[in-house]
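ok so for the tutorial part 2 we go from a plain amino acid sequence to predicted structure tokens. step 1 is just haveing the sequence, like this:
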Amino acid sequence: QRMNTIGTYEQDSSAVGRIKTWTMLTNLALDRPLVGGGFEPYTTEVFRRYLPDYDRTHAAHSIYFQVLGEHGFVGLALFLTFWWLTWRLSGRILKHTKNDPEFKWAYWLAAMTQVSLIGYFVGGMFLNLAYWDMPYFLMVAIVVTWHVVRSRSAEPTNPSALRPALERVRYPARSPSMPS
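step 2 — the prediction. this is what the tokens look like for a chain of 180 residues:
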């Protein structure tokens, strides 16, 4: 029955409330583009100021509009960049561990993190989860995994590489004019 309201969303108070809230948050961000309205700006006063023709208040029900309204365009750009960098780092792990049996665990962690991020960003279009902690745990796990993969794969296998670097450096012979 709920699916039948897709064509007549104007009659669904939940859908109208979301769209009105998204409009209010966009107006708020346009008025305060650098910093937004701060955390939880969903008060009657804020709604009256940025959406005067609407008399109800609703939560954002979208991580994108939530961050836009609360932190402005700069905050939204930082939020999206943060997650884009997490996606890219996961891709790097995939590239560096694809054919390495020692790092099979890292490969699958990175792959499933990307799947999880897709779920988070698709689901986040209609949920207030901008500050849900699980994606942030995944981001930390990816950063730590990258450091483990990079440090282990950078371990020298050549015995001469184990000698201190200064022993391998060839210094020029001292000339009589050089102080000792």
